What we know:
InterPro entries: Cro/C1-type_HTH, Lambda_DNA-bd_dom_sf, TransReg_Diox_bact_type. The chain is an all-alpha fold and about 80 residues long. It has a single domain (about 5-65), classed as lambda repressor-like DNA-binding domains (434 Repressor (Amino-terminal Domain)). About 65% of the residues lie in helices and about 0% in strands. Helix 2 (about 20-30) crosses helix 3 (about 35-40). The two termini are about 15 Å apart.
Amino acid sequence: MDIIKVFADNVKKYRLVLGLSQEAFAEKSGLHRTYISAIERQKRSIALDNVQKIADALEIETHLLFIDGEKTLNE
């Protein structure tokens, strides 16, 4: 499993479910838009405190960002 890809895909999926642009989501999470963009494009690793900020802004449990949805669907 590529944890960076799984995390990036989940951030984008949950952000879109909330109907948030990267800019609106960045503001909600207290992170910069380019940082959010880089995470979603798998160009950045992320510190644990920022993982928590993202989960809080998405209003989800942190562990959900690390579940491989594709793998779950294909099993």
